[in-house]
Amino acid sequence: MTKLVSWNVNGLRSVHRNGYWDEFVKLGADVYCLQEIKAEWEQLDEDKRELGGYTAIFNSSRARKGYSGTAVYSKTPPNEVSLGIGGEKFDVEGRTIFTHYEDFILANVYFPNGGMGPERLHYKLDFYDAFLAYVQKLRVEYDKGIVICGDVNTAHKEIDLARPKENEENTGFLPEERAWIDELLAAGFVDAYRHLNPDRASAYSYWDLKTRARDRNVGWRIDYFFVSSDLLPHLVAAEIHADIYGSDHCPVSVILTDIR
Hints:
Order of helices and strands: EHHEHEEEHEEHEHEHEHEEEE
CATH class: Alpha Beta
Structural class: alpha+beta
Largest sheet: 6 strands, mixed
Shape: globular
Mean pLDDT: 96
Distance between the termini: 8 Å
Strand content: 25-35%
Low-confidence stretches: none
CATH superfamily: Endonuclease/exonuclease/phosphatase
Oligomer: single chain
Radius of gyration: 17 Å
CATH topology: Deoxyribonuclease I, Chain A
Number of domains: 1
């Protein structure tokens, strides 16, 4: 049994400083995938860099400090690690870590936010396309199942956010953003949580902090695990851990059996 956990921490140093890390690691994952770490390895205190018994991998933003970035803590040392999807345009912000294991490849991804104007939305859509092309290339090259996790920054269906009608023209729920998730599914990937919970509403992973939306559960499900269809027989659980605090997102997880 392999448990994978993903969390947009919205600042790894903040999670440690404010005492949320210990509760998070009680989830007992074999691999922890973090997004929006907003930190470099050197900026963390020595006792915060490592997690006992885990291999730590960081991909911090080179665009500017205190921004974006991803990290992985893996109980089993990966056979191979790669950072980025090719090209400085998409890789400079430290948004991807690929860890290769015996039976599958795990992609930890912090997809761009489409806010802050048309240029950034265009960048987000370009990133989506470049990422999918890269993943499809990996599937051919390695002939392994692939798990994609992270903050996708888009809610797929109306069931995935509290106020779909009010957000039809807002980034995060635009038709062109949602269409990319359709494309990902058509390419042979499965939304793990929705596969196991097809009708569960009011299940969200992100809430706006400024409006205290979490108190009212006015949220969005924008954090995902997607598994390639060949791994679907191994998928036995997918959860949203809304009881874990410390960020404007909460962790999400999957459990896969008979996989290494």
